[in-house]
Amino acid sequence: MNSLLFIEDDDHIRLALRLVLEDEGYRVREAADGRSGLAAFHAEEPDLVLLDLRLPDISGFDVCRALRAMSIVPIIMVTAQTDTQDMVAGLEAGADDYVTKPVVPKELAARIRAHLRRAQLIGAADSTSPSEIFGDIDVRRDQGLVFKGGKEVSLTKTEFNLLCEFADYPNIVLSRDQLLERVWGYDYLGDSRLVDAHVRRLRVKIEDQPDEPRLIVTVRGIGYRLMPVI
Fold it and tell me: In this structure, is residue 206 part of a structural domain?
C-alpha cells in the first residue's frame, strides 16, 4: 500500500481528500502546518507528498525546498486557482506537479497514480540497459542516475523522466503537449508552464550555461529538442 503525506492547514479540505484517497487504497498521513509536515516526513518517508503552498507557519515554498533537498519523492502542490505566480514559484522550488483548488478528486487520484507508476518504473528498470552519453552527460537508466563530467547530478524523478524522454528522441522536436502526456502520464490540457519550469530546472543542473543552453534547446512556438553533441 502506497503512503501519502498531505500537508494542508484547512481541516475540511484535508479531511475530504483524505477520505477520497483512502477509498483509492492509499495510506494517508496528515499535517496541518509546515513544521509538523517536515517532522512527519522524517518519521516515515512517504511515497508522495501533497503540499499546500499557503501554510500558517513555514512557507509552503520553503517546505518544498526542504523536502527536495533531502529526497526525490514526488511532490504535488495544491494552489488556489488564481495564484499563477505561486504555481510557477512552486515548480521552481522543486514540485513535480500541481492541482488547483477546488480540487477535483478524480483528477488528483489520476495524477497520483501517474507519478507513483513512474517512480516504480525507475526502480524496476532493466539492469542491462547501457549508459547513454550526450556530450559530458551520462544517463544511466538502470540506476536512475545522471552524471555530468563524471560527477553525479541530483535530479528529481520528474526531471529524470524528462531527460530520458529527450534522450529517446535526440534531434527530434518534442512539443509541450507531447512531453506533458509522456512524462506526467495523463492527457493534461493545461498551459505549458509545467513543462517550461521543469526544463529550466533541468538546464540549471546539466547545462554549462543554463541561460544559453546547448543540450536542450528551445524550438520557438513548438517545444524543445535534445542536441546529442554539444
Answer: yes
